[in-house]
Amino acid sequence: MGKTLRFDSPSFGRRLKGMLGVDFYRLFHTPMYYIFLAIAAIIPAMILGTSGIPDPQTGVAATPLYTNVWHIIAAEEPLYVVSDIAEYANMDMVFIFGGIMVSIFIGHDYKSGYVKQLFTTHPKKQDYMMSKTITCAFAMACMCVTYLIGAVAAGLLTGGSFQVDPLALLCAVLGKMIMSLGWASLYTFLNIIFRKYFGVSIASSFFFGTGILIIGAAAIVGNSAWLNVFLYGSSVYACLSSTPVTVLVCLVCSVVWALVYNVLGTRILSKCDVY
Amino acid sequence: MDAIEIKGLTKNYGQKQALKGLDMTVPVGSIYGLIGENGSGKSTTEKLICGLIQPNGGSIRLFGRPHTDPDVRARMGVLIESPGCFPNYTVWNNMMLQAANLGIKNADVEVRKVLKLVRMEGAAGNKYKNCSLGMKQRIGIAFALLGSPELLILDEPINGLDVDGMRIMREVLVDITKEGRCTVVISSHVLGELEKIATHYGIVRGGRMIRQMTAKELDESCRTYVALKTGQMSRSKALLGCRYSRVEEDDDGYLRVYDDVEPERIVSYLYENGIVINEIRTAKISLEEYYNDLMKEGK
To answer: Measured between CA atoms, how close is A103 to chain B, in angstroms?
Structure first.
C-alpha cells in the first residue's frame, strides 16, 4: 500500500477539449453528417427546380413559388404567420432536418454505450451538454451553408432573379447560422429527456423544429416582435430586411436559450439515471 | 481509508426495490469479488458506484470522498456489461477516442501499452463490430485500464472469455493490484476463476450484503470433508449415512462426508463392515460450494 493517491482536477478546458475532439472526430467520420449536408443542398434546389414546371398534360407553366431566388433563403419580412408553403419553405427548414441529425448523433451515444463509458470517467454532465451543443450547432451551421450553395446553384440553373440588398442577405444568413446554436441546444436537451426512446427523440425534435407552436401562437397574436424571444421567432426574424441588429437579436436569443437548455439538461443528467 | 465505503445503499426501479440498505467496504489494493445470484443487486451496486444511476438512499464514498467527485471519478476504470465502443470504428480508434475523453497525454503510447497488456495489439486495426465476444471483453478491460486507474469496476468481465483469455485477465488483475497500486471490484458467476484472484469477497442476496470476508476468512470458513471411493458405493453411502449427519455423492462419483471426522475412523468403520476403500482424501469445499450452501441456508 505504498502508493500515495493523487487526485488531479482536470481543468474545464482540458475536459471540454477532449470531448469536443471526440465529437468532431465522430461527426466528420459519420456518413450521416454528409448525407444531411447533401439533403440541405438538395432541398432548395429541388423546390426551385420543380417550382414553375409546365404541366405535362396542358403544357401550361405553373406560377413559380418564388419570384426571387433569395426568398428560398428567407422572406422579405419576418412572417410568423404563414399562409402558404412559399412563406414557410426557407432556410429555417435546415433546423428541422438538423433536429433529426442531432437525434441520430446523440442516440448513437446511447446505443453504443459510449455515454456509459463517458460518465464513469471525469467528464461532467455539463461538459457533455456543451460539447454536443457546440458540435451539433457547427453541423447545422454547415447545413445552412450547403443550403445556400444549393439555392444559388438551382437559382443559376433556373435563371431566377438574384436581386437583393447584400448586407441584408448577409445578416439574414448570419442570423440563421447563429440560431443553429440555440436549436442545437434544444435538440440536445430533448434527446437527453427522451434518451431511452429514440423514436420519441426524433419525433419531438421534428415537432419543435417545425416551429408549429410559434406559428400557432402567431395565428393568435399576429406578427408580434415578442415572438423573437423564441428560437423559431428569431430564426424567422432573420429575413431579407435584416440589419446588424437582427444578427444581435439572433445572437442573444440563441445564446440565452443555449444556456437555459444546457443548465436544464445538465440538471436532468445529474439527477436521473444516465444508463 | 477504504477504496470504497458504502452505507445503507438503496435503489428502487419503480416499485421494485433492487437494493435494500446495502453495506460494503472494499480495502485499498484488494481484489474484491462481488458474488450473488442474478437480480441480487450486484450490477446495480456497480452502476451506483460508477455514477451511472442515482441512489434513493445511503452513501457511497470512494477513497474517502463522495463518489460524485469528478477528481475521484478521473481515477476510475470501468467495464459494465460491455465496452461502450462505436461498432464501425476500429479498436484503435475507439481506444484513442476514450483516451481523448480522459485527456491522456501521449495517447498512442498509452493505448498501445494497454492493448499489449490484454494481448490485443494484433487486433487494433479490426473494426469493433467484427471482434468476437471474447475479444470485446478484452477490449473492455483495455478501456478500463486506460489512464492507469486507482479503482477498477468490472461487471462480469470473464463472460465470453476462453481459457487463454481468463488466464490473461487473471495475470493482468494480479499485476495491477501489486503493492496496492489499484483496487479491483469484480462481479462474476465464474466462481472458480474468481477464487484464484480475489483477496476479499462480498456476497449479495436480495439487495443486501449478507457476508463480507477476506480470502483467508473464507478459507477458514470452508469446511473440510472426506472424499472416498469404494467398490460398493451405495452400501457405503447407506452405512456412512447411519453414522454421519451429512453424506453426499458428488459429480465425480466420490462419496463426501462433511462431518468433522478423521479419515482413519471412516476407513476402519467401512472395513469392519466388509467394504474396502479404493481411494480416500480430505479436501475443502470450494467457493462455489460455500456460496451454494450459503444460498441454501437463506432459502
So the answer is: 16
| Predicted confidence (pLDDT) per residue in B239-274, tens digit | 999 988 888 888 888 999 887 778 888 888 998 999
Instruction: Provide the shortest C-alpha distance from residue A125 to chain B (in Å).
Output: 10
Topology at the third CATH level for domain B224-285: Alpha-Beta Plaits (3.30.70)
Q: Do the strands B224-230 and B277-284 form a parallel or antiparallel pair, or are they unpaired?
A: antiparallel
What distance in Å separates the CA atoms of residue A73 and residue A89, rounded to the nearest whole number?
Answer: 8
The CATH 3.40.50.300 domain(s) of chain B lie at 2-220
- For A55, A175, A224, A236, the CA distances from A215, given in Å and listed in that order, are 32, 19, 11, 10
pTM: 0.83
Segment B168-189, tens digit of pLDDT: 888 888 888 886 789 999 998 8
Q: Which CATH class is domain B2-220?
A: alpha beta
- Kindly provide the ipTM of the predicted complex, given to two decimals: 0.82
Asked if B117 and B172 touch (Cβ cutoff 8 Å), the reply is yes
Grid cell of A50 as nine digits: 420543380
Instruction: Verify whether the Cβ–Cβ distance A1 to B179 is below 8 Å.
Output: yes
Say if A22 is an interface residue toward chain B (CB within 8 Å): yes
Q: Which residues of A touch B47 (CB under 8 A)?
A: 275
Handedness of CA B235, B239, B241, B242 (dihedral sign): positive
Burial (Cβ within 10 Å: 0-12, 13-18, ≥19) of residue B81: middle
Which of B69, B101, B150 is the closest to A19 by Cβ? B101
